[in-house]
Amino acid sequence: MRRLRQFLRQATLDHVFSDIRYAMRGMRRSPGFSATAVLMLTLGIGVNATIFSVFAHVLLAPLQFSDPGSLYVVSSHAASLGDARRAGSGPDFRDFRDQNTVFSAVAAVVPHFSEVLTGEGSPRVVNCAAPTIEFFGVMGIRPVLGRFYTPAEYTDLRNSTILISWKFWQDQLGGDPHVIGRSLRIEDVSSTIVGVLPPMPDLYADVDIWDKLTTEPSWPYMNWRANKFLDVIGRLKPGISRSVAEQQLTSILRRAEGEPEDIQVQLTPLKDFIVGPVTHQLDIIMAAVAVVLLVTSMNTAALLLSRAVKRSPEMAVRLGLGASRARIRQQLLVEGLLLSATGGASGIALASMLIGLVRQVPGLALPRLQGLKLNVAALSASVAVVVLTSILFAILPASVLSGLNVSSGLRGVRTETGRAQRRPFSALIVAEIASAVVLTVCAGLLLHSFVRVQSVDPGFQPTKVLSAYLRTNYFGPEGYGFWRGVLQGAARVPGATAAAVSDCMPGRTANSASLMFSDRPNDPAHAPSVEGCWISADYFRTLGSPLLKGRFFSDRDNDTAPPVVIINASAAQRFFPREDAIGKHISVNYLALGSRNNRPPPLREIVGIVSDVRQRVVDLPREPSIYMPYLQDDTTHVLASMNLFVRSVGDNPLLLASSVRAKIQSMYPNQPVEHVAVMREVVSRTLTQRAYSVGLMTGFALLALLLCALGIYGVVSYVTLQRTREFGIRMALGASRQDVLRNVLEQGGSLVAGGMAVGFGLSLLASRGLSQLLFETSPFDLAIFASAALLLGFIGMLACLLPGVRASQLDPRVALNTE
Predict the structure, then answer these.
(1) Can you give the pLDDT at residue 417?
(2) Following CA atoms 719, 720, 723, 729 in sequence, which dihedral angle do they give, to the nearest 10 degrees?
(3) Assuming Cys at both sites, which of 263, 299, 325, 799 could form a disulfide with 712, CB separation 3.0 to 4.6 Å?
(4) Please, are residues 327 and 15 in contact by the beta-carbon 8 Å criterion?
């Protein structure tokens, strides 16, 4: 900084303009060097600014709600129940609301369900949420148009007023300013719009319709303690700590009938609840891009050092003509500023373009992406990088001047640089190689993990299966006729071989159920949990999942037949390890949103065992699963919505899509058929975030390897150039050209080896942080580390080879005459 102040004191406006013009001429004279340096800065700053913008917007920006730091989501867990996070039930919410003294207000929301909208063009499914009357006050939300629901409207289970979201208002209703009072037909009921909510990108961003959630009076299933599907949100009073609040709410919940004694309430800050699933992933990506920026800065500094050495004669001439060293340092500062300003401006332009691409990436599934833009913090960080690198680029090359002898420089000296002078430059390359090693190892681990995920057998054949989602208005036994008609119609479409329905989506989602056994003592408080699905008779045939033992369901397994169940191989192994499960009887407590009775579940006979179908995301471990015929759902809740699956004769099931939709809507004109996709694509979408992480990390690693190769080449070229006379002496004394080449490669190889040693040590720490993102891959996979060593070694030695070959081809007489 002292040198910088000295430069600025001696500078004049004329000198600055003169230096700028000279720097621009220099960039034109060396287009290759200038383009390389600007490109490196553009990539480093552009990618860093983009990722930092995403990081800051998703993780750091405050939520849009009033005083968001006091908002907490209430959940519970118990070791006796597997320690999984549980949402709240209607009785839980009422107990918390009525008995707590730690919240200023508490609200609850049914976070996601769907309903059918008709009368607005083609029938379609709309996404819904249903809050209690306290919700909007707790969150500090005001309507953009109209009003909220009145207390009187919350006392009626079926009423004719609705609130709509900003997104629905703009996308579906064209932003109609006179929308208040307009009617929409939802679930065959005419409902009047009374209010429009503001944009809510932070929470429940996909909601179209905000229905009412009444808990008193309510449907019966809302009053079942075990039916936990509500997001309970409370605003903590000032001065109350989270731990104190958790203790009080735990005491409240433990007094409730049916809750285990070890139940614990947990308060999660609302922001953590929203962004928690992606925090670790974004942290790792942010660290990786910071390493890339570091490598970029080090590499550019190394290139400029190499260039400064080549310019020693020019600087000696200027010194000989009377220029002061301070004046030359000023010129170097201006050159560095111009170079980094060009790279910084290009980097910011690149970041603006990349931000637009991030917003448009389908299936990225990051929360809070709406409104993403290149923020002030990212721009400030980029400007800071530009300024710091400019100063660095000026100071480091200027250090070459401190040892420059004018008379030697005028004769074009290439004196040998001493070991102490080379040490900072060598350290620069060692650090650069170490950074590249860390990124390469991490990218290798993620790539190997992704390959392992892609090779997972999902337990069914998704290639020839078409899927679609059907939401109906049937909530009672009359729905059985509808689904029979859908199955018969879809199976008869030309090109289809079979059709089935289920409330599960294989490879993506499944509901939960708990089991009780007829042949052993049962502890209701510790009942084992499994994945549970209602299915039609041809479900496994349609998906292409094999039967291992017993039989599949048939249409005779209806509400008048004995209750039956099929289990998967994992359930048979876990619950019946040394006996035949066929013929055993279990009861399935299957409580899900919309269930309409609370009778004890009947005992069901196990009639079949199927191979493990990965009902949830394929990179999760296999779980015990049970399947029941939807015709035996005495709650009838499953009839409201199911997924349709159609197996195709040909290799492209999408060819059936229009025919299936037309067939269903010819029988049921107001029935929407949505989310039509090939099952292969459905499974692939669940891996989207993993694929993006792999792609980004691999891209960063490749960029770091490229920069690393350029940096090694630049520094080895610099050191080799400095040793020109030494090589001439060696060759005059009898050294062969192979000896010179070997010497250069050994010198460069020592840098590569040192950087790799440091890098592998750091990689052991970095890979441990990746463990949560890895699938069937050890964070200390020796094959990955060995592959990274071979790749870095090859690139490093290749970067050393060209300077070595050039040195070995020196004419000893010319080399000796450089002094």
Answers:
(1) 46
(2) 160
(3) 799
(4) yes
The values of phi and psi at residue 798, to 5°, are -65, -40
The four Cα atoms 395, 400, 403, 405 give a dihedral, to 10 degrees, of -130
111 φψ region: left (φ > 0), alpha (ψ -120 to 50), beta (else): alpha
Strands 603-610 and 564-568 come out as parallel
User: Cα torsion at 27, 32, 38, 40 (round to 10°)?
Assistant: -160
CA atoms of 498 and 487, how far apart (whole Å): 9
Beta carbons of 211 and 158 less than 8 angstroms apart: no
> Percentages helix, strand, coil for the chain, rounded to the nearest 5?
50, 15, 30
What number of residues does the chain have?
Answer: 819
- Single-letter amino acid, residue 210: W
Residue with tokens 């070459």, as numbered in its chain = 400
Q: Are strands 511-517 and 603-610 parallel, antiparallel or unpaired?
A: unpaired
- The whole-angstrom separation of Cα 408 and Cα 760 is 43
| Interatomic CA distance for residues 772 and 45, integer angstroms | 28
Two tokens at 579? Answer: 């006996």
* Per-residue pLDDT, 420: 45
Contacts of 529 by beta carbon, 8 Å cutoff, 6+ apart: 81, 82, 84, 512, 513, 514
As a three-state string, the secondary structure of 611-660 is CCCCCECCCCCCCCEEEEEHHHCCCCHHHHEEEEEEEECCCCHHHHHHHH
For residue 629, the surrounding DSSP H or E stretch is strand 625-629
Our measurement of the distance from residue 773's CA atom to the centroid of its chain's CA atoms, rounded to an integer in Å, reads 10
Handedness of CA 79, 85, 90, 96 (dihedral sign): positive
E-state strands within 399-519: 465-471, 496-502, 511-517
Q: Whole-angstrom Cα distance, residue 345 to residue 34?
A: 15
Residue 381 structure tokens: 């960080």
Q: How far is CA 437 from CA 268, 594, 759, in A?
A: 37, 53, 5
Q: How many C-beta atoms lie closer than 10 Å to residue 126's C-beta?
A: 21
How far apart CA 432 and CA 756 sit, in angstroms, is 10
Closest CA to 644 of 757, 489, 762, 427: 489
Question: Vertex 107, ends 207 and 225: CA angle to 5°?
Answer: 100
Contacts of 491 (CB under 8 A, 6+ apart): 497, 498, 499, 538, 646
Query: Residue 709: what pLDDT?
Result: 74
Measured in whole angstroms, how far is the alpha carbon of residue 338 from the centre of its chain? 37
pLDDT of residue 112: 85
What does DSSP assign to residue 731?
A: H
Helix 270-310 / helix 312-320 crossing angle, nearest 10 deg = 60
pLDDT mean values, one per 10 residues, the chain (819 residues): 57 61 64 69 78 79 86 86 77 91 92 84 86 91 91 75 91 89 86 91 88 71 77 92 92 86 89 80 76 73 65 65 64 71 79 76 66 72 66 60 52 46 65 81 81 80 91 84 93 92 88 84 77 92 93 91 93 91 88 56 91 82 89 84 92 90 90 90 78 74 73 68 66 71 76 83 80 77 85 79 71 55
The CA distance from 816 to 668, in Å, is 94
H helix or E strand, kind and range, residue 236:
strand 231-236
Say how far apart CA 284 and CA 352 lie, in whole Å. 22
- The pLDDT, as a whole number, for residue 322 is 60
Strand 674-678 to strand 465-471: parallel, antiparallel, or no bridges (unpaired)?
antiparallel
Please tell me the distance from the alpha carbon of residue 56 to that of residue 54, in angstroms, as a whole number: 6
Q: Determine the distance from the C-alpha atom of residue 663 to the mean position of all C-alpha atoms in its chain, rounded to a whole number.
A: 38
* pLDDT score for 752: 81
Here the tokens at position 751 are 């840098």
Q: Which helix (H) or strand (E) holds 587?
A: strand 585-589
Angstrom CA distances, 44 to 351, 431, 812, stand at 10, 17, 42
- Structural contact between residues 266 and 6, judged by C-beta atoms closer than 8 angstroms: no
The pLDDT value given to residue 416: 44
Q: Tally helices (H) and strands (E) across the chain.
A: 23, 21
